[in-house]
Amino acid sequence: MHPVITFAHNVLPFTKGWPDWVVYVAIVFVVAFGILNTLVAPLTGISTYIERRMAGRAQYRWGPNRVGFRSLLDALPVTRWIGRMGDIGPVKAIGRLIPGGLLQFAADGLKLFTKEDIIPAKADKFLFRASPYVVMAGSFAAFAVLPVSFNFRAVNFNIGIFYVLGISSLVVPGILMAGWGSANKWALFGGMRSASQIVSYEIPVAISLMTAVMLAGTMNMTDIVNAQRSGYGIEKAGALGWYVFRYGGLMIVPFVIYFIGGCAEVNRTPFDLPEGESELVSGYHTEYSGFRWSFFFMAEYSNMFAVGAIATTMFLGGPLPPYPVQLTEQLFGGMGHLGMVLRFLEGFAWFFIKSYFFVLVMIHMRWTLPRYRVDQLMHLCWKVLLPIALVWFVLMCGVRAVRMEMKLAAQPAVAEVTR
Amino acid sequence: MRYDYVGVLVYLALAVVFVLVGMTAQRVVSWFLRTNRPNEAKLSPYECGEEPIGGTFIKFNIRFYVMALVFIVFDVEVVLLFPWAAVFNELYAFYRMALFWDMLIFVGILAFGLAYVWGKGDLDWIMTFRKHLSPAEKVARPQSRKEVA
Amino acid sequence: MIAALGLAVKNPATWVFLAFAAVTCGSALVVAVSRSLVYSAYALLLTFFGVAGLYAFLDADFLAAAQLLVYVGGILVLILFGVMLTHKIRDINLSNESTNPVVGAVISGFLFLALAYVSLMTDWQVVEHPASATSGEIGRAFVGKYLLPFEVSSVLLLGALIGAAYLARREKREA
């Protein structure tokens, strides 16, 4: 009996009468829908807001600070009366802590929704319309295996990380579809450059992820997370168990290579040549307007979050907290249902904090670093990252082999392994 | 279990449904608001305000093709190495260092391939003729990445 | 056997399988028949995706993901690059003068009947095997029974790499 179905039967007894597949589809649908409506759509909006504020900070100006809860209070007469309470000293001080402009993304979303949907006359109508589907499907399906909390994920694949690599390569033909369907020379150019960039950087990314897989001995994301609970021979290791700190810091290199490659995969600066605003307007999504464009936008930001999420899962322990997780396990274990909920929230909170930290780093990098030229980009991938990734992979395997040799030599009698 | 694949299908279907519902809603709203007023300027390809010159084709840049070819080879290498990495830990007690040398031979042969392609200049984005350049031409044409701006 | 068919139709897995099979065959038909080269290339995306789904039905999860990674992410991209970089590709109308629809239909009809007969008359062994960790088994095979093919495949890849790079290299033209 599949664990999801047993879980459903325990928690929601009314599902016992339903056929199995209906129960499974319903549960996964609820989880996926939840992820869609918390991690994809609103997170895109909030990330946009944070990005524009950070851009303002980098450029010594305010970001969006008008369309927010504060201005909403002033808009309606009733709430204006409530807002007058904000003139009282302490309330005003608290009000100042809330940044203005928080609802900018909602206003932008509404604007995009009401814009005219322009499809260029010469565009290939079918491909133009079909590409948001492919790109969104490729970006969103990677969320299926993410371990958002302890032993909690929508889909349990034995090939977890390999599945993520495979399904995110659905995005590449989608981008080519968008570039070609736009009937715009520059969109086509941007699409091809973007596709070639994503595709090149997949190799160092895959090799650095393979290094973490070699450490864990499995491709299953949940098992990789659980393998990071202890490290350096300490049972309750906390943050020391995370793969990024293993081998005395040697594993930082695959982590950095993964992060750089991940930035390149989502076309973020300094690798945003395909959408370089000074060169190609918007690259492959130049001709897309209104709501159709917002799907590409959502796909990009959710891809950023997915890259951060995979970095945390493979290298930073995923939902594991920096303090030893065994402590809270004992604490919450004895609290029954409430403990279960608290444990879920604890895992999800740490997972989200760590993943979103990477998103913030990516946003910061965008407004700090200049853009790579395309030949520099390819040089970086094929001549710097790929050799380093390969060498480091062999090195890590060698270190692991030597350590296992030492461990095996220390044991006087080794049990016969039958094959 | 089979159900896990269904989960993947649910995610894919949800993404597709999301886009579908979104676009349909947008269509309904824009029919309501009558935002659809196409004119020639809006329907022509966007070239930063200029009139588009020439058709929508670009000259064949072979570097895209070469890069995709090299990618495929290394992609297959990665695909073949993933199962090896997954069983390294559990099989080490049985095979000892032979397990490591297996991988080293595999990666080494392909590293040799990378070195060959690198040395022959197939990985350069800016392609230069390598043979038969007179010293004057070598000065005029950038020979390596360092000399490009 | 007809009873088994009846049972199978009630099973939702069958419907999903039929959907995947229809997607694969339909898009393969578009690839073969379409007049526009670009549409053929893009329909290949659906074909590869359908094949990955069929692999998943056989519990070959590693193979399905590898299919997506290599075929969709690599080979399809290569084909698309080739197609889209061809000069004036939109104006090319594919047509083959040597087609004869009648003969083609007869031959493929016979082929279809033969395959259908074989697949219906075979006594298929239905193995209800639990989902195994195929990547682990593949890994064990790579270092155990199939070590030599594993190493030889790297030589094959090396040959492919060198050959492809040679073919695509710009030849020095006389200045």
Spell out the key features of this protein:
heterotrimer, A: 419 residues, 65% helix, globular, C: 175 residues, Four Helix Bundle (Hemerythrin (Met), subunit A)
Average pLDDT of chain C, rounded to a whole number, is 83
The total count of strands of chain C amounts to 0
Instruction: Give the biggest beta sheet of chain B.
Output: none
Assembly type: heterotrimer
> How many domains of chain C?
2
How many domains of chain B? The number is 2
- Please report the first level of CATH classification, the CATH class of the largest domain in chain C: Mainly Alpha
CATH H-tier superfamily of the largest domain in chain C: NADH-ubiquinone/plastoquinone oxidoreductase chain 6, subunit NuoJ
Q: What is the rounded distance between the termini of chain B?
A: 56 Å
Shape of chain B: flat
Unreliable runs of chain C, pLDDT <50, ≥5 residues?
Answer: 171-175
Task: Provide an overview of this structure.
The complex is a heterotrimer of chains A (419), B (149) and C (175). By secondary structure, chain A is an all-alpha fold. Chain A is built from 16 helices and no strands. In chain A, α7 runs antiparallel to α9. By secondary structure, chain B is mainly α. Chain B is flat, with a radius of gyration of 27 Å. In chain B, 36% of the residues are buried. The C terminus of chain B is likely disordered. Chain C is built from seven helices and no strands. In chain C, α3 runs antiparallel to α4. At the A-B interface, α2, α7, α8, α10 and α13 of A face α1, α3 and α4 of B.
